[in-house]
Specification:
This protein has eleven helices and 16 strands. With 398 residues, it is of the alpha/beta class. The protein has two domains: 94 residues, Roll (Urease, subunit C, domain 1), CATH 2.30.40.10; 293 residues, Metal-dependent hydrolases (TIM Barrel, Alpha-Beta Barrel). The strands form two sheets. An eight-stranded mixed sheet has the order 3-2-1-4-13-14-15-16, with helices on one face. It has an eight-stranded parallel sheet with strand order 5-6-7-8-9-10-11-12. 51% of the residues are buried. The protein binds zinc ion (ZN).
């Protein structure tokens, strides 16, 4: 039986009010004064609400959120290693259940209009594949409401913890989608080997690559050059994301221009989430205007690293704008583009968008303009995933 949904009077970005006709999960028609083709069609009045394509959280960590648990008093030390070790200890102490935790995360994400997530999942020799298995179960449980891509992520280091590569390999065999990496110089202290192993794993499993790169200034820039070399040599253009890439905010203009050329030549995407702190960060606007592929995400949501992030991509757009000192409407529209289309390109969803033929993944929000919605962040009136209503008035529909 055909399933038809007609949503009338909604306002897309940059356009007049339209109607959307959805048939079997796909946008069949977009335009004024549409009519349902079947008497069984479900009709809804959009009431002039803002229409967004589904939000794309292209970088988060669903396996280790502390959402729904008693408040965790955070007294972690300042360094990256302090945070990594503290997290491993806390996870043991709490006997964290990655399936239950990632389900709580998924529900909040769906309720706020996220239709696609790429989540990094810790793989290490303490934790084994528990995180991967829990999130893979969640991916299955919510597959009609949210697309989840899993990155096999060596959060505790890879070469410095023998056995980690084998576990990553096993996760990829068992359904992880993407190969992760982490600070090849600063954590593993052997950048060429770290990257060779990652690119080997990716080639073996025909998987994309997503590397956390916090290394600052010229150290990080050197790692970025090594990533670009391997991307070119292995024909991996368009399949590599560098997450954070703090180094792009910490080199001089001449070096930055050279790095941007490398990113463009190799179609490498930069994920920037507007991190807190005083460290320099890449200028999202500089990269966007140069044509560099960009995406964003919530990173760790209320976890052992800190309590500040929540799974709401309108809040994320606000944070990216705030961190980058973006105030103009066209600048905030740029951030929305990154939080929707930019992320969808990374996740490889060719059917993403609001045109006929695209998957019917969209969000309705009350408000005057799309930019205003970033500032006010009202409850999402309606969230639709492949033509099904999955959330209404800020709450998931079971
Ligand atoms: Zn991360």
């Amino acid at each position: 039986m055909t399933h038809e949904l007609l949503v009338t009077n909604v306002r897309p970005p940059h356009g007049e009010a339209i109607d959307l006709r959805v048939v079997d999960g796909v946008i069949a028609e977009v335009g004024p004064a549409l009519e349902a083709s079947s008497p069984d069609a479900r009709a809804m009045d959009g009431g002039g609400r803002l229409l967004f394509p589904g939000f794309v959280d292209a970088h988060t960590h669903m396996d280790k959120t502390l959402l729904g648990l008693p408040w965790y008093r955070n007294e972690v030390g300042p360094s990256l290693l302090d945070k990594i070790e503290n997290e491993r200890a806390l996870r043991r102490e709490l006997q964290l259940d990655p399936h239950a935790q990632s389900m709580k995360h998924a529900r909040l994400a769906i309720a706020t209009g996220t239709t696609h997530i790429r989540t990094h999942v810790d793989i290490d020799t303490d934790w084994g594949l528990q995180g991967f298995e829990g999130v893979a179960q969640t991916r299955e449980d919510v597959k009609d409401a949210l697309d989840i891509q899993i990155v096999a992520f060596p959060q505790s280091g890879m070469l410095i913890r023998p056995g980690t590569v084998d576990l990553m390999d096993e996760a990829l065999r068992n359904g992880a989608d993407v190969v992760g990496g982490l600070d090849p110089s600063a954590i593993d202290r052997d950048p060429a080997k770290h990257l060779d192993v990652i690119f080997d794993l990716a080639g073996k499993h025909d998987a994309d690559i997503d590397i956390h790169l916090h290394e600052p200034g010229e150290l990080g820039a050197f790692s970025l050059e090594l990533i670009a070399e391997r991307t070119r040599a292995l024909g991996y253009q368009g399949r590599v994301v560098v997450s954070h890439a703090l180094c792009l905010g910490g080199v001089d203009e001449a070096y930055l221009s050279r790095l941007i050329e490398l990113l463009l030549e190799n179609e490498i995407t930069i994920m920037s989430h507007g991190p807190s702190g005083l460290r320099p960060v890449p200028s999202v606007k500089r990269l966007y205007e140069a044509g560099v592929r960009l995406c964003t995400g919530n990173d760790g949501v209320r976890d052992a690293w800190g309590p500040l992030n929540m799974p709401d991509m309108l809040l994320r757009a606000f944070i990216v704008a705030y961190r980058n000192n973006l105030r103009r409407d066209d600048e905030l529209e740029m951030v929305l583009d990154i939080a929707t289309n930019g992320g969808a390109r990374v996740l490889g969803d060719a059917n993403y968008g609001l045109q006929p033929g695209c998957a019917a993944d969209f969000v309705l929000v009350e408000g005057e303009t799309h930019v205003q919605a970033i500032i006010d962040r009202p409850p999402r009136s309606l969230v639709v995933k492949r033509g099904r209503i999955v959330a209404r008035d800020g709450e998931c529909v079971e």
